[in-house]
From TrEMBL, chain A:
Gene: nirD
Domain Rieske: 3-99
Keyword Oxidoreductase: yes
CDD domains xrefs: Rieske_NirD_small_Bacillus
Lineage per the UniProt record: Bacteria, Pseudomonadati, Pseudomonadota, Alphaproteobacteria, Rhodobacterales
Keyword Metal-binding: yes
InterPro entries registered for this protein in UniProt: Rieske-like_NirD, Rieske_2Fe-2S, Rieske_2Fe-2S_sf
Domain of life: Bacteria
Descriptive protein name: Nitrite reductase small subunit NirD
Keywords, comma-separated and alphabetical: 2Fe-2S, Iron, Iron-sulfur, Metal-binding, Nitrate assimilation, Oxidoreductase
Automatic annotation (TrEMBL), chain B:
Location of the region described as Disordered in the Swiss-Prot/TrEMBL record: 790-812
Protein name per Swiss-Prot or TrEMBL: NAD(P)/FAD-dependent oxidoreductase
Residue intervals of the NADH-rubredoxin oxidoreductase C-terminal domain: 314-381
SUPFAM superfamilies, per the entry: FAD/NAD(P)-binding domain, Nitrite and sulphite reductase 4Fe-4S domain-like, Nitrite/Sulfite reductase N-terminal domain-like
Domain FAD/NAD(P)-binding: 3-277
Metabolic or biological pathway: Nitrogen metabolism; nitrate reduction (assimilation)
Matching PANTHER family: NITRITE REDUCTASE (NADH) LARGE SUBUNIT
Co-factor requirement: [4Fe-4S] cluster; [2Fe-2S] cluster; FAD; siroheme
Species per Swiss-Prot/TrEMBL record: Salipiger mangrovisoli
Key words, A-Z: 2Fe-2S, 4Fe-4S, FAD, Flavoprotein, Heme, Iron, Iron-sulfur, Metal-binding, Nitrate assimilation, Oxidoreductase
Domain of life: Bacteria
InterPro entries: BFD-like_2Fe2S-bd_dom (IPR007419), BFD-like_2Fe2S-bd_dom_sf (IPR041854), FAD/NAD-bd_sf (IPR036188), FAD/NAD-binding_dom (IPR023753), FAD/NAD-linked_Rdtase_dimer_sf (IPR016156), NasD-like (IPR052034), NiRdtase/SiRdtase_haem-b_fer (IPR005117), Nit/Sulf_reduc_fer-like_dom_sf (IPR036136)
Length: 109, 812
């Protein structure tokens, strides 16, 4: 696994998100109230809503377009909706955000 | 006999000497240096000394008698200035002392923030007896003020001690909640509440600017202009390992002196112990690992085998009456689950963090009786899968059934003088009296006490009071809670936020028994609004509790682009504004739409371009039209008496005045106004939230119209003669709506619930009308700011860009 530095942790507010652009679409990086990081595809499985613009609550994200709720841990849609978004390994080290480079590259391949 | 020199008489070296001299009293001739003019004492017990609960003599661990009995040569008050590793001597003020083995136990030094004025007399750290005595001395004068910089363990103990000595104490903490390294938000909130109860003022997110005074400290200034009186300032902003000696001696250093598991440094004859060491990347600040190190070092010095291992640590605060416990890891990690238990009535909060069926972290506040049991589970890595369901209830519940949280707990906890019905000033005690007198239903209670007889929003609460006092014999009508995160309705939450003076999200989550850590997309925006509407100065709007449009200050479209709409006051514009809009539309490739609200919408703007187009429009004098908020949208007008041959009043002018007064305010749902210059009603004012029709004799103010999912004509609120009165009634109506309506109820829905008669009654009371206007204006001092201008600035604009962009890199 190769880790790619995508920015400083401070750049994402608690209960917030930012996107990382890759050649095959955007990855959303979420930071929870408890300072945990999660990375998923930025694209909602329903109508393609940009998930990084949604609301982070607990370890869930609500899509800004039609309120689909996904688990950030598994990428599974919650409740009555059926769908799944890809999740990617991400971690922090010394205040920097490291995203799994292989996962990002695999998307591009 | 080998010569052992020990530098530093702290808690670690004291314990090490005990082990060493117990095991082999004659192995070494020991010389003990200490920069402080005294021997070993229990430094962590300085807090009870500060508070007056103990004397210094009671916390001395080794006295002169002990040193003499153990033949320890003491060199107290004498600093070691250098170590010569080649000649194996230490240099001090009084000369050279040779060693065969050397132990560095220099501990740590408090971190003094280099603020302007940090050198003034009266600025102390909280590390040794001198600091403690300086604080005790300052507290002797009646009414003296203390400012503690740092809301960690040490700072809070200092605060509590000084408060017990009668000082006026303020704690400044830079982070959002106290003890953020050991506690989560909720536990930090409860701790703050407990400290405030004892009269300690706590300011979080406090950035200290300077310490001032002539000749000695007199006051502390914060970045936001706050000025605090101070007779003493205590810096408790953390500690740094004191490692200058080790560094100068050329030992291997990390953040402190590196040691192996036998406490050896890189020099075979030099050892280190305590807060000045770094082991496997760890630094140490709590006493338990220091004692472990001391034991290992004593063995190493005697050539016996032992190994230091880093253990799980737990924290407790030594402030009488603040019961908190924190252990393990309660943050970061994708595969973790939380179990949360809240008992608002008793101020109890417990949170367990589980990973792969093991308990890995625990935070508790208010009831820490089971903390050792949980700590044991963490240390032992016990498999908790079997007891997961009842785990949070502690060891007593294992094998038994669990108890569910009581949804009525919040109401049961209210004191008798808590106001339930704000309209009629009815307290919980009045209702209980009525219940005792035989009123056993909402209707009879209402008839006897007038509780819920006016606006009715407290009806749910009254029913809960009935349920609490009558138990099972009262059948609760089923009210719909906000969402699955809580058991309360919007109306209940609104009332409780006021009655219980809840001024932060963690306060709401805790006191109202929320079942999720921080709400969801349904309840959090509502709670955020209620808090900012009720506490405009104490609470600040939280962007992370806003849905996308309100967070990004533009409307998201189905393709993920945004629309941008500048304000056109009362629907008036100028050639220059139109040119700027046209140029912006061309520059950012926007579709252009004229809207029903008399403005121009630019569609298809990329998120990255938002700050730039805002800056362009700002440059032409335009501000955000808030076309995306639950707030004031537009005030639609006709040309009125300025141009129209039928116009009776200056409807355009009134519209502009209303828009300039109301813009920027947050409301439960969007608010649209219209002002027509005559009853022909060209501005379609009669289907607006507030619609004013100008007539010869003055102004007809109508409210609660609708032209969306429902279509409904406005109802007449009042007829007034002057423009000023029309504005006053409109502002007061909007504020009443802000204070009472359920989030996402448009005014017409809210008025249907509370009744137009009630609204009229409230607003017809001149003093209430004027105080509503006052409260609205107060809120506007905070919120009437152009969000575009704030976000077009470079530091903020950056947040609209991707964090990183890999689309260009590696392209062939």
């Amino acid at each position: 696994m190769s880790w790619i530095d995508v920015g400083a942790l401070d750049e994402i507010p608690l209960r917030g998100a930012r996107v990382v652009k890759t050649r095959s679409g955007c990855v959303a990086i979420f930071r929870t109230a408890e300072d945990e990081l999660f990375a998923t595809s930025n694209t909602c499985a329903h109508k393609g809503g940009p998930l990084a613009e949604g609301m982070v609550h607990g370890r869930n994200i609500t899509c800004p377009l039609h309120n689909w709720v996904y688990s950030l841990e598994t990428g599974e849609a919650q409740g009555a909706d059926n769908g799944r978004i890809p999740t990617y390994p991400v971690k922090t080290e010394g205040g920097r955000i490291l995203l799994d480079g292989d996962a990002v590259a695999a998307r591009a391949a | 006999m080998q010569k052992l020199v020990v530098i530093g008489a702290g808690m670690a070296s004291g314990r090490m000497l005990e082990h060493l001299l117990d095991a082999a009293p004659d192995a070494f001739e020991v010389t003990l240096f200490n920069a402080e003019p005294r021997g070993n004492y229990n430094r962590i017990m300085l807090s009870p000394v500060l508070s007056g609960e103990k004397t210094f003599e009671e916390i001395v661990t080794h006295d002169d008698v002990w040193y003499a009995a153990n033949s320890v040569i003491t060199r107290f008050g004498e600093s070691v200035t250098a170590i010569d590793t080649a000649r194996k001597i230490v240099r001090s003020e009084k000369g050279e002392t040779p060693y065969d083995k050397l132990v560095i136990a220099t501990g740590s030094a408090p971190f003094i923030i280099p603020l302007p004025g940090h050198n003034l007399p009266g600025v102390v750290a909280y590390r040794d007896l001198e600091d403690t005595n300086a604080m005790i001395e300052a507290s002797a004068r009646p009414g003296a003020h203390a400012v503690i910089i740092g809301g960690g363990l040490l700072g809070l103990e200092a605060a509590a001690g000084l408060r017990l000595r009668g000082m006026e104490v303020t704690v400044l903490h830079i982070s959002g909640h106290l003890m953020e390294r050991q506690l989560d938000e909720t536990a930090g909130y409860l701790l703050q509440k407990d400290l405030e109860k004892r009269g300690i003022r706590v300011i979080t997110r406090a950035n200290t600017k300077s310490i001032e005074g002539s000749g000695k400290v007199e006051r502390v200034l914060l970045d936001d202009g706050t000025e605090l009186k101070a007779d003493i300032v205590c810096m408790a902003a953390g500690i740094r390992p004191a490692v200058a000696l080790g560094h100068a001696a050329g030992l291997d250093m990390g953040r402190a002196i590196k040691v192996d598991a036998q406490m050896r440094t890189s020099d075979p004859d030099i050892f280190a112990v305590g807060e000045c060491v770094e082991f496997a990347g760890n630094l140490f600040g709590l006493v338990a690992p220091l004692y472990d190190q001391a034991k290992v070092l004593a063995k190493t010095l005697l050539d016996e085998d032992d190994t230091f291992v880093v253990r799980e640590l737990s924290t407790k605060l030594k402030v009488t009456g603040c019961d908190l416990f924190s252990a393990g890891d309660f943050a970061e990690g994708p595969t973790r689950e939380d179990i949360v238990f809240r008992d608002p009535a008793r101020g109890i909060y417990k949170r367990l963090v589980i990973e792969e069926d093991r308990l890995i972290g625990a935070v508790m506040y208010g009831d820490t009786a089971d903390s050792n049991w949980f700590f044991g589970l963490i240390k032992d890595g016990t498999d908790v899968e079997e007891m997961r369901e009842t785990l949070i209830f502690g060891p007593a519940f294992q094998g038994g059934g669990g108890a569910a949280a009581d949804p009525l707990a919040a109401v049961a906890a209210l004191p008798a003088d808590a106001e339930i019905c704000g309209c009629n000033g009815v307290c919980k005690g009045d209702i209980l009296k009525a219940v005792e007198g035989g009123a056993h239903s909402l209707e009879t209670v209402r008839a006897q006490t007038k509780a819920s007889a006016s606006c009715g929003t407290c009806a749910g609460l009254v029913e809960q009071v009935l349920a609490v006092s009558l138990g099972d014999s009262f059948e609760m009508p089923t009210a719909k809670p906000i969402c699955a995160c809580c058991d309360l309705t919007h109306e209940d939450v609104r009332v409780l936020i006021k009655t219980k003076e809840l001024k932060s999200q963690p306060a709401v989550w805790q006191e109202l028994g929320w079942k999720t850590p921080n709400g969801c997309h349904v309840c959090r925006p509502a709670v955020n609004f209620y808090l900012l509407a009720d506490w405009p100065l104490e609470y600040r709007d939280d962007p992370q509790s806003r849905l996308v449009n309100e967070r990004n200050h533009a409307n998201i479209q189905k393709d993920g682009t945004y629309s941008v709409m500048p304000r056109m006051w009362g629907g008036m514009t100028t050639p220059d504004e139109l040119i700027a809009i046209a140029e912006a539309a061309r520059k950012y490739d926007a579709a252009v739409k004229v809207t029903g609200g008399q403005r121009i919408d630019l569609l298809g703007i990329k998120k990255e371009d938002l700050p730039a187009i805002w800056a362009d429009l700002n440059d032409a004098g335009m501000v955000s039209g808030h076309a995306y908020t639950k707030g004031l949208r537009t005030v639609k007008t006709c040309v009125g008496s300025d141009w129209c041959r039928f116009g009776t009043q200056d409807s355009t002018g009134l519209g502009i005045k209303l828009e300039k007064r109301l813009w920027g305010s947050w409301t439960p749902h969007k608010v649209k106004l219209g002002v027509s210059g005559c009853p022909r009603n060209c501005a379609e004012a009669t289907c607006k939230d507030v619609g004013i029709i100008c007539v010869d004799s003055g102004y007809q103010v109508g409210v609660a119209g609708a032209a969306g999912m429902d279509v409904k004509e406005t109802e007449r609120l009042v007829d007034v003669a002057s423009e000023e009165e029309a504005i006053e009634w409109t502002v007061a109506f909007v504020q009443l709506y802000r204070e009472h309506a359920k989030y996402l109820d448009r005014p017409y829905k809210w008025v249907a619930k509370v009744g137009l008669d009630w609204v009229k009654d409230v607003l017809a009371d001149e003093s209430r009308r004027k105080s509503l206007v006052e409260r609205f204006d107060l809120s506007q001092t905070v919120y009437q700011k152009d969000p575009w201008a704030e976000r077009a600035a470079p530091a903020e604009a950056r947040k609209f860009q991707p964090l990183a962009d890999f689309t260009q890199e590696a392209a062939e």
